[in-house]
Design goal:
The protein is built from three helices and ten strands. The chain is an alpha+beta fold and 216 residues long.
């Protein structure tokens, strides 16, 4: 055989192998395995997505300690009676001077207002009871329009017989403080006004009495 023919034959064989490998690439991977060894199965990697929920600690609830003010009930309002002539006394005493000036305020004691009266005219109040052994009438009279003519009078009476317990008179305008030591009995007030704008009477008692005899 001539050398040229042998070279042509070798080139043809190589060309056939190249075409076979290009058309079937898996033949090339199988060449590295021993005869009869099966091809390994492809490894499939699965990536799992894990959702992490953050743990939020519960919001602490603050413990509220009630202050002394939170234990005080709102003061109740005392109104006028619509039938004043049914009371054993419905007129003022003839002489208000006998009651004298006001008492000194209990400045060394913390006071609590448990009731009040706020009006612009006179009348007879509803009957009420006070459980505290010591309480005060803290009265303020406003007369801005005609202060020179203002006049306020009040007496506290027993409801069963009309006996006067105490009283006060404020001329023109201003304030007065009256200490009362009557408890448990049913009482009412007789009030007259002239040339005033309004008045308010706060019924107060020391805090220690309020806490000791508090009802409800």
């Amino acid at each position: 055989m001539e050398k040229g023919d042998l070279l042509t034959l070798v080139v043809g064989v190589v060309l056939v192998l190249v075409i076979a490998v290009v058309a079937n690439p898996h033949y090339l991977s199988g060449l590295s395995l021993a005869p009869g060894t099966p091809s390994p199965a492809p490894v499939v990697t699965t990536v799992s997505t894990v959702t992490v929920t953050p743990i939020i600690p519960p919001t602490p609830v603050p413990t509220v300690t009630p202050t002394p003010e939170a234990t005080i009930a709102p003061p109740y309002r005392i109104f006028y009676n619509s039938s004043p002539f049914t009371y054993p006394r419905f007129k003022m005493p003839d002489n208000m001077r006998t009651f004298g000036a006001g008492d000194l305020a209990l400045r060394s004691r913390e006071m609590v207002t448990f009731a009040f009266i706020n009006e612009t005219r006179g009348g007879l109040t509803q009957k009420f009871r006070v459980p505290y052994p010591v309480w005060v009438l803290n009265t303020t009279v406003i007369a801005n329009r005609t202060p020179q003519y203002g006049n306020f009078q009040m007496v506290l009476c027993y409801a069963n017989n009309g006996t006067v317990i105490d009283g006060e008179e404020i001329l023109n305008r201003g304030s007065m403080y009256r200490v009362v030591e009557t408890s448990g009995a049913e009482v009412y007030m007789i009030i007259t006004t002239a040339y005033i704008d309004s008045y308010q009477i706060d019924l107060e008692t020391p805090r220690d009495y309020y806490s000791r005899y508090k009802t409800g």
